[in-house]
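Blinded run. Sample ID left blank on purpose so nobody reads anything into the name before looking at the predicted structure. Input follows.
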Amino acid sequence: MNLKDSVILVTGASSGIGKQCAIDISNAGANVVLFGRNGDRLKEVYNNLSPGNHLVFQNDITEYDKLEPLIEEILLKIGKISGFVSCAGIESTVPMQVLKPDVYKEHFSINVIAGFEIARIISKKKFINPDGASFIFLSSIMSILGEKGKIAYCSSKSALIGGVKAMALELAPKKIRVNCISPAIVETEMTQKMFEELPESSMIDILSRHPLGIGKPSDISNLVKFLLSGQSRWITGTNLIIDGGYSCQ
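Blinded prediction complete.
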């Protein structure tokens, strides 16, 4: 899965799955562009990348009017883009009766609209690699199976799957492939914090739902590398489930 000299943009690159994707993509030879909110953590990720022509941008991807100038800067500094990995996202647990419209707006702005807007900009002729590209959006197994208290999260992640199918059809003539990945629970900073706040019985229940155990960020990044590479040249418009058997039950 050689990505040598390709330019790959990763959002949510300062932690969790996005961080692991950025590191592993750089190990495969890519020049990686890191988008994230936390400057200190972005610097730490940058320092763990393999040698290359990498860029770091501390930004808020929901400031949509600032996105295209950043993409212009990428083009000028390291060239046209061959891949986009949309890992930025938020999650919350809010019972339906206390949900407010602002909760939905926040989830959709970060989990859906920002990534789709970046994809729209990158897919312009002046930004995209004419030899082809691959866009990957991180959804969730909860987009298919649901979870109590996560209506905003589940619905936003479901929106990714539908949007990706339409995007894949529209961008195929440009040789751009578009896919989703839907993981179950993965060992990240976010899930570690969640486990610390849960009673032991809830932790046991969550673990029992994963026949192969909780996933690791590298389990996802390996699939991301495959989808970015030419080895997946005939895969587009799909949602790949990687959940340790969670959805078998």
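Unblinding after everyone has recorded impressions. The chain has one domain: 7-248.
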